[in-house]
Amino acid sequence: AKEFRYWTVHDSMGALLPWPVFEPWWNALGAELQLKYKTDCIDRNVLLALISPEHHGHQVLQAYFNEQADLSRRHLDAARAGRQHVLLVDTGWSGSILGAIQMAFPDISFMGHFFGRYAYGEAWKPWFGQLVGIEVEDRAFRWHRPHTSLFQHRHLIEGMCEPAWQSVEGYRVDESGQVLSQAGPIPPERIQP
Length: 193
Fold this sequence. Notes:
Strand order of the largest sheet: 1-2-3
Distance between the termini: 34 Å
Helix content: 25-40%
Radius of gyration: 19 Å
């Protein structure tokens, strides 16, 4: 919910869910919750309530998340072609995606090569043993360690390294039955420097 701080529940869920999922979810809420969610800001407690089995829109969200979990597993299985070990390469810093994907697929061994390994001034994350920072590794910026100055400009660096293409926010099945990201394959001209 950090990226959506001060957003209403309505606007947050509208940004997170594709329209064919958002519309039935919103309609399942009823007038009282719709009025409340148009003014209340989203936070951790609201998110926990939204996924609770007692919540009015729970069945819509559960069906969507179950479908996406199945599609993401099919996509991953096709990409790894039976291999047990997967290398995740990312322009990121803390590897939170590595931790999340390892939790989602505990039967697969993941290793991450990221631009840097950065703990944002906090303790090392549980997945840091599987994460290598290619350019720099440390807990925080330290003036006596000049290479850690990269942490001060991490968003600029990450932005320059990423292709000009949509992030993967979900999966779909194409006409041939292949599972793809909702954005489809990145055109080669978007990858080339």
